[in-house]
Design brief:
binds S-adenosylmethionine, 408 residues, 43% helix, Rossmann fold
């Protein structure tokens, strides 16, 4: 511009390819009210998360390659031997420290934001959940259920009170917090209803098992059922059960499912390591999404074994998770993925991603020639047109996962 005011602008402004506004998230009868300032805060944190992932993290990699790794080589006279050595070397680098501190801050702020929204309306939301679910046998809670220590001892991903803490009778605030803040954590990559994992698994089942007609489906660690509902919608003749130990999540989840008009869904409070209420072979499809990384190994062993018992012949067990740390994944990427274990209150994350899951399936009774390994990814085109075609998988735009499981 020459300041005269009549010079034409010839270059087209670059198209905006960032995150959508958080208000694209699907609203339903249980979704808490968000004010102008809540929305601004949610958008800011989601944008900051994306900025950290796409604009700052690449400089951490440069810092690793140009500073931290050469330091390890100089000190040890060899290349770093494992991801732990990489992480420890990164800890001394200011670029990693800055990225890591900001990432932790977005998690803390995400929880503060969601809790503020959920707690402000806690009583109204509890009353709404009650009116939607009262007397409905689809919601089955067990106030005597012992909460496993690996759930109760940790504020998972900085979430105060984890999945189970109840602050008032009939509390659903943990569910409301989880729902309202999901956009910040995922930046919309799971789509309008935060259900990309469930839709991905449906797509896989429809493609790989086109004649499969499940009568009963069990989703273990369903939380509030984000990924359960697309399965229920895709298989309307099946009875679909979401199981969790956290009552606030289940109350919110059942009320949300009803508000969204699903009629073939149940939510049950139980510990999946022992499910005597279900007979052998009770389910044709047992699954989890983003669940295994929060399990103790003792509990995983029990849940795999219980899944084998509960699965009908011809049925399938499927788990959607972040990728395992295989030898073809660089130690740097492994160390960066391990961030959640050390700085985001995910104590089992690191171990889960290094263990031999095949061995765990076989130990539980599944046949070695019936194991399943594949990849699935979330389609977020409903709110984020560029996402589905973007191939940047890691810390980028596309949510891509590993699918592991077994047929019986
Ligand atoms: C990371 S979240 C799972 C996310 C969820 N599947 C989704 O797609 O949104 C883990 C969930 O597993 C539940 N959980 C942990 N251990 C469990 C167990 N032994 N039995 C049932 N639920 C469990 C927690 O309460 C929590 O809601």
């Amino acid at each position: 511009m020459d300041g005269s005011g009549d010079t034409p602008i010839t270059a087209a402004a670059p198209a905006y390819d960032g995150l959508p506004d958080s208000r694209v998230v699907g609203r339903h009868g249980m979704f808490p009210h968000t004010t102008h300032d809540d929305i601004a805060r949610i958008n800011f944190l989601a944008q900051l998360n994306r900025h950290l992932a796409t604009q700052v993290a690449p400089f951490v990699k440069t810092a690793w390659e140009t500073r931290a790794e050469p330091r390890v080589r100089a000190a040890e006279g060899r290349a770093p031997k494992d991801r732990h050595e990489v992480r420890k070397a990164l800890l001394g680098d200011p670029m990693f420290a800055t990225w890591s501190a900001l990432r932790r801050m977005t998690m803390e702020q995400r929880q503060q934001t969601g809790r503020w929204v959920a707690l402000r309306e806690a009583e109204t939301l509890a009353a709404r959940a009650k009116s939607l679910t009262e007397g409905d046998p689809g919601l089955s809670l067990d106030p005597t259920l012992p909460i496993p220590r690996y759930v109760s001892a940790v504020d998972h991903h900085c979430m105060a009170g984890s999945y189970h803490t109840e602050l008032i009778p009939g509390d659903v605030s943990a569910g409301a917090n989880y729902d309202v803040g999901m956009f910040i954590t995922t930046g919309g990559l799971l789509g309008r209803w935060s259900d990309g994992g469930g839709r991905a698994i449906v797509e896989w089942v429809k493609r790989e098992k086109p004649d499969f007609k499940p009568r009963r489906i069990l989703d273990i660690g369903a939380t509030l059922g984000h990924n359960l509902l697309p399965i229920a919608a895709a298989f309307p003749d099946a009875e679909v059960i979401g199981l969790d130990v956290g009552a606030p999540m289940l109350r919110y989840g059942m009320a949300r499912a009803k508000a969204l008009g699903l009629t073939n869904v149940r939510f049950i409070q139980a510990d999946a390591s022992s499910l005597p209420m279900f007979e052998d072979g009770a389910f044709d499809w047992i699954q989890t999404t983003m669940f295994l990384h929060e399990l103790s190994l003792t509990s995983m062993r029990a849940i795999f074994s219980e899944s084998h018992r509960l699965l009908a012949p011809g049925g399938v067990v499927l788990h959607v998770e972040q990728p395992q740390y295989t030898p073809d994944m660089s130690l740097y990427e492994q160390a960066m993925r391990d961030w959640d274990a050390f700085y985001n209150n995910e104590p089992f994350w690191s171990t889960l991603h290094e263990i031999d899951l095949d061995a765990r399936f076989i130990e539980a009774g599944f046949a070695a020639n019936k194991l399943i390994h594949d990849k699935v990814s979330a389609d977020a085109r409903d709110i984020f047109p560029a996402a589905a075609d973007d191939t940047v998988e890691d810390f980028g735009r596309k949510a891509a996962w590993r699918l592991v499981g077994a047929e019986k």
